[in-house]
Amino acid sequence: MTTDNALTPEQILSAAEDVLRRFGPAKATVVDIARALGVSHGSVYRHFPSKAALRESVTQRWLDQAHDQLATITVERGPAVERLHRWLATLFAAKRKKALDDPELFATYMTLVGEASDTVEAHIETLTGQIASILQDGIHQGAFTPSHAGNAARAVFHATARFHDPEYAGQWSAPRIEEDFEAVWSLLLNGLRSH
Amino acid sequence: MTTDNALTPEQILSAAEDVLRRFGPAKATVVDIARALGVSHGSVYRHFPSKAALRESVTQRWLDQAHDQLATITVERGPAVERLHRWLATLFAAKRKKALDDPELFATYMTLVGEASDTVEAHIETLTGQIASILQDGIHQGAFTPSHAGNAARAVFHATARFHDPEYAGQWSAPRIEEDFEAVWSLLLNGLRSH
């Protein structure tokens, strides 16, 4: 039970996640979420103007779960080569953890993600922007050579899709997956590097 | 109508594809295929020992559709850099054509592929073997540097997954997809190259 006054968006989003997990994305309603919180559905609408907006926020929160860690790596000083490797490894670890720890919730979110192409696009823009920023640092440090950090960032993101795109979740427990990740990383690093 | 004597495996596989397209992979039977050919189901079993073997051959044939072209590029002489680019572009074009020209049949095959992990694995081994062979040529020509062509071939295959893995078919009509392919190619080529 939560009193209406103390209700935060974060609490609503957590309750929404629980309800989505229990009822599935097709059946979950705002009334279910309000009931789980012990508040009126009006209290939920005070924070989220519509069911669609609430679903989008839930999806966004899920997509951005590793966001703080990745943002931190992006703005660190330190050698760009090591930071880019850690950034990619952190993204992979975060996605894999979500997929393997709670496959049912993961499937639920895959449905939500499929409905929210704008949210997904913005998420990808944020991620490639972070890669571009690390590449730019590396160019300044004399470690990377690409003439256009933004284009190279997109290429790095696409070339590592197997290690962050949820479509591949089924392969993330394969025995060679870590080795495969490092092999792709070495190839990309060699492609980005000054020689 | 086909007489039993003239019946070839290729005719059976074509009929099986038609039947799969019409009835879907869940409902298609060997009897349906025999009926489409105007032969007894015994005639079909003379070529394929079981329904499972037939489905596997159909899947294999579909997976290997671009195989001849790719195999030709693999054994050509000529500069390995240009051949590797053409090999990857040919694979992408072949997969994309299948996905966009006949989406229903593509979906049917996606189901079959999901059931045939051994067939898929063998298919991937063939493809990465071809990449390795071109890389090996490039190493001899002094164009590529990887110390282990087999490992580098796997990395190239994984890094280009977005441009051949059927999971990505939904993105293959995106306006920037050609540009994205070329950007990943440039990055990989730079990674493979002697400097």
Question: What would you note in describing this structure?
Answer:
- The structure is a homodimer of 195-residue chains.
- Chain A has 10 helices and no strands.
- By secondary structure, chain A is mostly helical.
- Chain A folds into 2 domains: 4-59, Homeodomain-like (Arc Repressor Mutant, subunit A, Orthogonal Bundle), CATH 1.10.10; 64-192, Orthogonal Bundle (Tetracycline Repressor, domain 2).
- The A-B interface holds A 151-152, 154-156, 158-162, 167-168, 180, 183-184, 186-192, 195 and B 151-152, 154-156, 158-162, 167-168, 180, 183-184, 186-192, 195.
**In percent, how much strand structure appears in the residues of chain A?**
under 5%
- The shape of chain A, in one word, is elongated
What distance separates the N and C termini of chain A?
Answer: 62 Å
Which H/E pattern describes the elements of chain A?
A: HHHHHHHHHH
Question: Would you tell me the structural class of the helices and strands of chain A?
Answer: mainly alpha
Helical region count of chain A? 10
Q: What is the number of E strands of chain A?
A: 0
Give the radius of gyration of chain A. 19 Å
Number of domains of chain A: 2
Determine the most extensive contact between two protein chains: A-B, 23 and 23 residues
Domain HTH tetR-type (chains A, B): 6-66
Protein name (chains A, B): TetR family transcriptional regulator
Keywords (chains A, B): DNA-binding, Transcription, Transcription regulation
DNA-binding region (chains A, B): 29-48
